[in-house]
Design goal:
This protein has 279 residues and is mostly beta strands. 11% of the residues lie in helices and 31% in strands.
Length: 279
C-alpha cells in the first residue's frame, strides 16, 4: 500500500499514483489514549485498520496537499556520512565541513533531529539563516512499525512499517549537526508511505534530487556503508524503537545549496517522487 496523509489530516491509499482513496473514517478505530500519551504514532502502530476500510471518496492527487505520512514520530534518527563518496566530498569541501571533524559513520554515530522539523512536500522548506549555506540532502527514510530493542540485523526488516523519501535539510556551520538540521521544515517526509511488503529489498533503490530541473544527487542504496538492517540494529542497541520512529539512512554525494524560489524534485525507486518549493 501507498499510504498518504493529506489536507486536514485525512488519510488514504494512493492508487496508480494519480488518485487517493479517502479512508479517513478508519481513524475512528484507533485506540483511545489518555494523558500521558504514548511514545509512538497511533496510525503507524495500527496500519491494519486500513486493510478493510471503506472508501468515502476518490480524490485526484493534483487536488490535495500532501503532508508527512507520519504525523507523530517519536524520534528522528539520522545516519551521517553513510556513503563513501559523500564522506570524500565532505572532507574535501570546506563549505560542508566548516572545520568540523568529519568521521565515517562507525565513529560519528547516529544523531537525532527535532520532531518539530517534520513537514510534508506540499508544505515546502522555509529557510532560516539565509546568510549561510543551506543544503539539500536526499535520503531513504525508514519508518519503524514494531517496538523493539537490541534488534538483530537478520531480523531488522521485520520491524519496518514502510519507506518514504526523506529530505534532510542542513545549515552549514560549526554547530552540532542536530542543531543545524532541526529548524522547522528541515525534515521533509513523503510523498507517502510505501509499506514494507512492496519493497522487500531496501538495499537496491535508486534515489535522486533535482533542483530547478538539474540533477544534483543520484545514487543507489546498495552503496550505503551501513545498510538498513545494520542501521536498525545499531540504533536499537542505544534506543528502544517505537512505531512511527523515522530512520534517515544517509545522503549520497552531490549535496548543494538551495535558495528561496528554488524547486526541488526528489525521487526514490518503488516509492515515487515529491516536488517542493523552497522559500
Amino acid at each position: 500500500m501507498k499510504i498518504a496523509r493529506f489536507d486536514n489530516n485525512r488519510v488514504g491509499i494512493v492508487r496508480d499514483d494519480d488518485v487517493i482513496q479517502d479512508l479517513t473514517g478508519a481513524l475512528a478505530q484507533l485506540p483511545a489514549h489518555r494523558y500521558p500519551f504514548p511514545h509512538h504514532d497511533a496510525l503507524i502502530a495500527n496500519l491494519e485498520i486500513l486493510n478493510n476500510a471503506t472508501t468515502t471518496r476518490v480524490v485526484p492527487l493534483t487536488r490535495v496537499e500532501l503532508l508527512s505520512p507520519v504525523a507523530n514520530p517519536g524520534k528522528i534518527m539520522a545516519a551521517p556520512v553513510n556513503y563513501t563518496k559523500h564522506l570524500e566530498e565532505a572532507l574535501a569541501d570546506k563549505g560542508i565541513h566548516h572545520g568540523n571533524l568529519v568521521a565515517e559513520i562507525h565513529k560519528a554515530g547516529i544523531f537525532l533531529k527535532a520532531t518539530s522539523s517534520v513537514v510534508g512536500p506540499s508544505e515546502g522548506v522555509h529557510l532560516v539563516h539565509t546568510d549561510r549555506r543551506n543544503d539539500h540532502e536526499v535520503e531513504l527514510a525508514v519508518v519503524i512499525g514494531t517496538k523493539g530493542r537490541n534488534i538483530a540485523a537478520a531480523e531488522a526488516l521485520s520491524y519496518v512499517a514502510g519507506y518514504c523519501i526523506g529530505l534532510d535539510m542542513t545549515i552549514r556551520g560549526t554547530e552540532d549537526r542536530s542543531f543545524r538540521k532541526s529548524p522547522d521544515s528541515y525534515t521533509v517526509l513523503g510523498p507517502w508511505l510505501v509499506t514494507a511488503d512492496e519493497i522487500p529489498d531496501p538495499g537496491a533503490l535508486e534515489l535522486s534530487i533535482a533542483v530547478n530541473g538539474r540533477v544534483r544527487q543520484q545514487a543507489n542504496t546498495k552503496d550505503l556503508i551501513l545498510g538498513v538492517p545494520e542501521l536498525i540494529a545499531w540504533a536499537s542497541s542505544f534506543y528502544t524503537l517505537h512505531p512511527g520512529d523515522v530512520l534517515l539512512t544517509g545522503t549520497p554525494q552531490g549535496v548543494g545549496p538551495v535558495r528561496p524560489g528554488d524547486v526541488m524534485v526528489a525521487s526514490l525507486e518503488r516509492v515515487g517522487e515529491m516536488r517542493l518549493l523552497v522559500s
